[in-house]
């Protein structure tokens, strides 16, 4: 299923992430693509806040993988930023496929993993519109039917 939604500001972007959190399960992969500054981290912060994270989640740009686990959040989540990877082969070294069994993955810059790396992911794209609003578009595989959009 494909769809789109207009997000008028950063608060709306975080609110869309919070809506996703209600449906997120261990084993899920959510990819977040878009230009620098489009709102990928804001969306992820909305997910994490709705899962119970009390403080603002840092961008995982330098850590690459930022883990969150109970009791900090209601389920294990890995917030991943692949921007600094130079070679798709480096993704294998992160051990994400194994970690996915017990955690949900929020992956920024998924294209750095190579085309089709997570074929079953909820693929989200955030674009900046001329007026500064954001356009959230998605491709949701069958596993997300009834879970996204909410």
Automatic annotation (TrEMBL):
GO annotation (BP), single: tRNA threonylcarbamoyladenosine modification
Q: Which GO terms describe its molecular function?
A: ATP binding; metal ion binding
**InterPro entries in alphabetical order:** P-loop_NTPase, T6A_TsaE
GO CC aspect terms? cytoplasm
Q: Name one Pfam family in it.
A: TsaE
What UniProt keywords apply to this chain's record, in alphabetical order? Answer: ATP-binding, Cytoplasm, Magnesium, Metal-binding, Nucleotide-binding, tRNA processing
Report whether Cell membrane shows up as a keyword of the record: no
Q: What is this protein called?
A: tRNA threonylcarbamoyladenosine biosynthesis protein TsaE
What organism is listed for this UniProt entry? Answer: Sphingomonas endophytica
Query: Where does the UniProt annotation locate this protein?
Result: Cytoplasm
- Give yes or no: UniProt keyword Transferase: no
The UniProt family comment states:
Belongs to the TsaE family.
Where would you say this protein principally sits, based on its record?
A: cytoplasm
């Amino acid at each position: 299923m494909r769809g789109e939604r207009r997000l008028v500001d950063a608060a709306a972007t975080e609110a869309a992430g919070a809506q996703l959190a209600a449906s997120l399960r261990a084993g899920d992969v959510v990819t977040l693509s878009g230009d620098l500054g489009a709102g990928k981290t804001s969306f992820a912060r909305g997910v994490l806040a709705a899962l119970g994270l009390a403080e603002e989640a840092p961008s995982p740009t330098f850590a690459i993988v930022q883990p969150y686990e109970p009791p900090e959040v209601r389920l294990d989540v890995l917030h991943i930023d692949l921007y600094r990877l130079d070679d798709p082969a480096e993704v294998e070294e992160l051990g994400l496929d194994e970690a996915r069994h017990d955690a949900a993955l929020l992956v920024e810059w998924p294209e750095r993993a190579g085309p089709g790396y997570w074929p079953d992911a909820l693929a989200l794209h955030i674009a900046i519109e001329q007026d500064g609003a954001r356009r959230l578009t998605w491709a949701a595989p069958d596993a997300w039917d009834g879970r996204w959009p909410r």
